[in-house]
Design goal:
Elements (H helix, E strand, L loop, with lengths): L3 E4 L5 H8 L7 E5 L11 H7 L8 E7 L3 H7 L6 E5 L3 H11 L2 E7 L3 H4 L11 E5 L22 E4 L16 E5 L4 E3 L2 E2 L1 H15 L1
Parallel strand pairs: 1-2, 1-8, 2-3, 3-4, 4-5, 5-6, 6-7, 7-8
Antiparallel strand pairs: 9-10
């Protein structure tokens, strides 16, 4: 059974409202907050407007790449439930968790089995551990079979060029599926029909 799903890289209100009000909404919705290289990056003033909605059943996730304290102060009052953090060590994440009272998704970028082992460093800090590709703003994959031997008490989230057609492979895996690029009609622009197909497929697999 798929443990949940996350749609990442939302940058416009129409798409956000469609997702929130879907008959099978995702558990998590992600926003690119400080990584300007991404075509899905949302400038701060627009971000404030975007997240000022009724989340209903979904949780909002701030995607942060090596955030500095100035930026963390800037977004601290926005209604995010989770901070998804890339490129920070355990002490930096611990500081963020303790000072901003947010649940943490520790994002690890993976290319080989040695990268997988790093999850052990975040066991005592993260609420969810995300295994992602090293592509960042690019839709790149890694071998998800590398996760077969991972043993953790934390929830596992996986990303990395996952397509809706791949979902059946994860039917019996204890993963939260994180998807972004394959729900777009062009880079950075979400396609509502693709979103519907993804959310409906997750529901059908779990039914």
């Amino acid at each position: 059974m798929i443990k949940g799903c996350k749609i990442c890289g939302i940058s416009d209100l129409n798409t956000l409202n469609h997702i929130i009000n879907h008959v099978y909404p995702p558990e998590y919705i992600g926003f690119i907050c400080n990584y300007k290289k991404s075509s899905r990056y949302v400038e701060f003033n627009k971000l404030k407007e975007l997240v000022n909605v009724d989340k209903k059943k979904s949780k909002f996730v701030a995607i942060l790449v090596k955030p500095n304290e100035e930026f963390l102060e800037k977004i601290k009052n926005l209604p995010f439930d989770y901070y998804q953090i890339y490129d920070c060590n355990t002490k930096e994440i611990e500081f963020i968790k303790n000072n901003y009272n947010k649940k943490i998704i520790a994002a690890l970028t993976i290319s080989n089995s040695e990268d997988i082992k790093r999850h052990k460093n975040f066991e005592n800090i993260a609420d969810i551990i995300l295994f992602d590709s090293k592509g960042y703003e690019q839709s790149e994959s890694f071998d998800h079979e590398l996760l077969n031997d991972v043993k953790t008490s934390k929830q596992i989230m996986i990303a990395g060029d996952i397509k809706t057609s791949d979902l059946i492979k994860f039917k019996n895996k204890p993963y939260i599926i994180d998807i972004s690029g394959h729900l777009e009609s062009k880079k950075g622009v979400k396609d509502l029909k693709k979103i519907d197909k993804f959310l409906n497929t997750v529901h059908d697999i779990n039914s």
